[in-house]
Write a structure and sequence with these properties.
It is a single chain. The protein is α/β, with parallel strands linked by helices. The chain contains eight helices and nine strands. A five-stranded parallel sheet has the order 3-2-1-4-5, with helices on both faces. It has a four-stranded antiparallel sheet with strand order 6-9-7-8, sandwiched between helices. It starts with 6 loop residues before the first strand and ends with a strand.
Length: about 210
Amino acid sequence: MKEKLKKVLLLGSGALRIGQAGEFDYSGSQALKALREEGIQSVLINPNVATIQTSEGIADKVYFLPVNVQTVEEVIKKERPDGILLAFGGQTALNCGTELYLNGILDKYGVKVLGTSVEAIMYTEDRDLFVKKLDEIPMKTPVSQAVESMEDALKAAHEIGFPVMVRSAYALGGLGSGICRDEATFKELAESAFTFSNQILVEESL
């Protein structure tokens, strides 16, 4: 990067179940330490007090606030960071970063996305886009369909044939995912999956 970064905002993983997403706490802490070594001021947003990231001396400034578009925009407005790191906060940070990008908030305040681009995040998190990208390689993948309604989900399941795998897009820790061997189980799991995400992937079970 040609211009020197002075201040970087890192989105933390927030409050998750004990034992879940510990790798993001660790990797985020390492990222904050690396920023310090480079002489770059760090700002952290993480509502979880029981993390390494929020320990004294890791980040220059910590905001114990929810990682969502409204609060992150307020912090950006106040702190005016040059860059933002999205890949160290798990699904919560990825979803929030994508929304900030799509809403034009990052452009509005001139905040550069560092590391993994939002386009790459979207290609890997949106199940439909991900399958299309794999098809370009071409990479052999299970037959799958991304759907946004129960009607389309049932249609896809019958076209693919049971057993099928159900996976939610943009969901934390594999919520709403599983294998269904019949229509009754499928309906139950698909309904659950739609409560976590507006898109689910129905695919051939291997």
